[in-house]
Amino acid sequence: MPVGTQGTLKGLTPEQIENQKCNLILANTYHLGMRPGIETLKKAGGLHKFMSWKNALLTDSGGFQMVSLVKLSEVTEEGVRFVSPYDEREIMLSPEKSTEIQNTIHADIMMQLDDVVSSTISGPRVEEAMHRTIRWLDRCRSAHKNAATQNIFPIVQGGLDAKLRTQCALELLKRDVAGYAIGGLSGGESKEEFWPMVDISTNLLPKGKPRYLMGVGFAVDLVVCSALGCDMFDCVFPTRTARFGSALVLGGQLHLKGTEFRNDFRPIEEDCPCSTCRHYTRAYLHRIVKQETVACHLMRLMKSIRDNIKAGTFVDFVKGFMGIYFPGGDYPAWAVQALSSVGISLD
């Protein structure tokens, strides 16, 4: 999913996003609740109508702001008390309030409010957050007004503690939900710590329901975690990278501001069918750096992953992708270990 925190991707219209075959985007409950505000969204009839978006929406609960705005927030059993970075107004984001805002937004997928802690800490606070996340899930579900048209996804927490992650996942399985998220990762921990937590979670969660790995968007991570059983991802990396003038390609990145592209009249990728590659050269993009348009290459990667899974050729795809991405065969050890755990050998 591309991340449109406040209901938009910077520099792109909803029509342009739709033309990139994007069926689902992410918006943030906390930021939308502040601006444009819940009353405006009510009058508009929800975020779909407000932004003229025909496809699906997923809303983050606002829980991530516990980490990103840690200096402005306080966590209690009631919820998260924030000082708004917009106007310094104080707001209590409780499970009930988060659910109310998401009901007003009319998101197709709503994330429960979870107690988010940094992935780099350990100790009692991690266990406290895991148990509170489960309690808050039940409060979110009780407050949910549109169960027939909006789905709440619970979030597996537990930091880097395998026992806590297992305990949380098993507890969430007792609730009848449409899908699950894996949270609290990709926040500064090493890849060697990261992938086993993903593996533990996907092995416990049902294969017949979506498994959403939150905050992951690097190309190698997407391929490896798809192999581990994840179905959905979100990250600001693709669009943020594009805004700074880099295009994501199969072998890594092209930093289009570099002088070597001044007279390079090839497309970004020769065989790519996207609008940018069909109509513009590297030389042209070097001059004007149409940042947002080049972000679609990560969507191409995700389409390739889906198509190869459907065709039964995913293992060959992974091997080919890793060979192109690491032409010298210097694969990251964590990726080799993770892929080996699901029977994919890069030898």
TrEMBL record:
<feature type="domain" description="tRNA-guanine(15) transglycosylase-like">
    <location>
        <begin position="1"/>
        <end position="323"/>
    </location>
</feature>
<dbReference type="GO" id="GO:0006400">
    <property type="term" value="P:tRNA modification"/>
</dbReference>
<dbReference type="GO" id="GO:0046872">
    <property type="term" value="F:metal ion binding"/>
</dbReference>
<dbReference type="InterPro" id="IPR036511">
    <property type="entry name" value="TGT-like_sf"/>
</dbReference>
<keyword id="KW-0808">Transferase</keyword>
<dbReference type="InterPro" id="IPR002616">
    <property type="entry name" value="tRNA_ribo_trans-like"/>
</dbReference>
<keyword id="KW-0328">Glycosyltransferase</keyword>
<protein>
    <recommendedName>
        <fullName>tRNA-guanosine(34) queuine transglycosylase</fullName>
        <ecNumber>2.4.2.64</ecNumber>
    </recommendedName>
</protein>
<keyword id="KW-0862">Zinc</keyword>
<keyword id="KW-0479">Metal-binding</keyword>
<dbReference type="InterPro" id="IPR004803">
    <property type="entry name" value="TGT"/>
</dbReference>
<keyword id="KW-0819">tRNA processing</keyword>
<dbReference type="Pfam" id="PF01702">
    <property type="entry name" value="TGT"/>
</dbReference>
<dbReference type="GO" id="GO:0008479">
    <property type="term" value="F:tRNA-guanosine(34) queuine transglycosylase activity"/>
</dbReference>
